[in-house]
Design a protein that fits this description.
Layout (H helix, E strand, L loop, with lengths): L13 H24 L7 H8 L9 H36 L11 H15 L6 H21 E2 L2 E2 L1 H24 L3 H11 L8 H20 L1 H7 L3 H6 L4 H23 L5 H13 L3 H23 L10 H18 L1
Antiparallel strand pairs: 1-2
Helix pairs in contact: 1-2, 1-3, 1-13, 3-8, 3-11, 3-12, 3-13, 4-5, 4-6, 4-11, 5-6, 5-11, 8-11, 8-13, 9-13, 12-13, 13-14
Length: 340
């Protein structure tokens, strides 16, 4: 089972890409506005929209303004950045590996980033920037190991890659359990919740890291989108057509690992976003990566914002991990793809 490079829906032009991305950006803006007034405490719609424009006299109380601007809005923005990172990384992995099941969570890349983040938090908690740096290192190492294990004499087949991902995920899950045992009891519960996807611990530095990583990673992937289109034909054919296969592979792996590392460092392991969103985009707009990657980034941001809104409202005032909501949506699609 591979992704066909011929499954395009219409000719992809710059104008069509711009139109699709403008539409998805509009949907993202609407979802952001609506989710900002929904929560355990409902906020006045008109006053909230007014405050989001930067005005000070909007009829909100000091408490409502603090909830909107200091708690809810940063969390929504982080959810958008995380969704953008994971969806773009998933689209890149699927194109590069020619595997529709390739996804950061299933390939073990998210667990690699999680191990790196936990090492930073347990052993280097005094230095905040160690968290995204070690998460990136863990994601990159996991990507390299899965790719090497998945390569056979005829290349990296879909079945071998998924099996390699399962092996690496199992090993890294054991590493996570080991690291958890050296924590004190008061931190174990918060770490467990974080591992399932937690956006409640939003900070300015994490938000900054997530947005910078999203911008850099998505731009690098878009620049290499045409090469990814050719590599979907096969690496040998792409090389014959002038693609520097080794360089593109290295850049895409590094960019995708940066995206996953920043996401996991900010929110824990939010699964299935990189699987669900790129497939929905391809079904809607075709398989040209020049359109798929930016569209997946915008759609992924919308998807995680919606999932996080559900997570914090379904059993309000208590919260569910956002990863639980994305898994409920992603797992049935994963089963459908396996059946195919």
């Amino acid at each position: 089972m591979t992704i066909s490079s011929q499954s395009f829906k219409g000719r992809t032009t710059f104008g069509r890409t711009l139109m699709v991305c403008a539409f998805l950006l509009f949907v993202l803006a609407m979802v952001l506005l609506i989710s900002s007034v929904i929560g355990s405490q409902r906020l006045p719609i008109r006053g909230s929209f007014c405050a989001l424009t930067g005005k000070s006299n909007c009829g909100l109380s000091a408490e409502e303004r603090a909830i909107l601007l200091d708690i809810r809005l940063p969390r929504i923005l982080l959810a958008g950045a995380v969704g953008m990172c994971l969806a773009a990384a998933g689209a890149a992995y699927q194109a590069l590996l020619r595997n529709p099941l390739a996804e950061p969570y299933l390939l073990g890349v998210s667990n690699g980033a999680a191990v790196g983040t936990m090492v930073a938090l347990v052993f280097f908690s005094a230095h905040e920037w160690n968290r995204p740096v070690l998460a990136f290192a863990g994601a990159l190492a996991a990507t390299f190991v899965v790719y090497r294990l998945g390569r056979g004499r005829t290349g990296a087949t879909p079945d071998r890659l998924i099996l390699a991902g399962v092996i690496v995920t199992t090993f890294l899950s054991s590493a996570i359990v080991f690291i958890t045992t050296v924590m004190d009891a008061t931190r174990i519960r918060s770490f467990t919740f974080w591992l399932l996807g937690d956006l409640s611990g939003t900070t300015t530095s994490l938000l900054t890291v997530a947005f910078i990583a999203a911008a850099i990673g998505v731009v690098v992937l878009i620049i290499n989108a045409r090469s990814l289109n050719l590599m979907m034909l096969g690496e040998r054919d792409a090389f014959d057509l002038g693609v520097q296969v080794a360089g593109v592979r290295l850049l895409v792996f590094a960019a995708a690992s940066l995206l996953v590392g920043a996401s996991v460092a900010s929110s824990g392991s939010v699964g299935y976003v990189g699987l669900v969103v790129p497939h929905l985009v391809r079904l809607s707009f075709g398989s040209d990566n020049r359109l798929v990657i930016p569209a997946a980034a915008l759609a992924g941001a919308t998807f995680v914002i919606v999932a996080d809104t559900l997570a914090r409202t379904i059993i309000a005032p208590r919260e569910l991990p956002v990863g639980a909501i994305t898994a409920l949506i992603g797992a049935p699609l994963f089963i459908y793809l396996l059946k195919r």
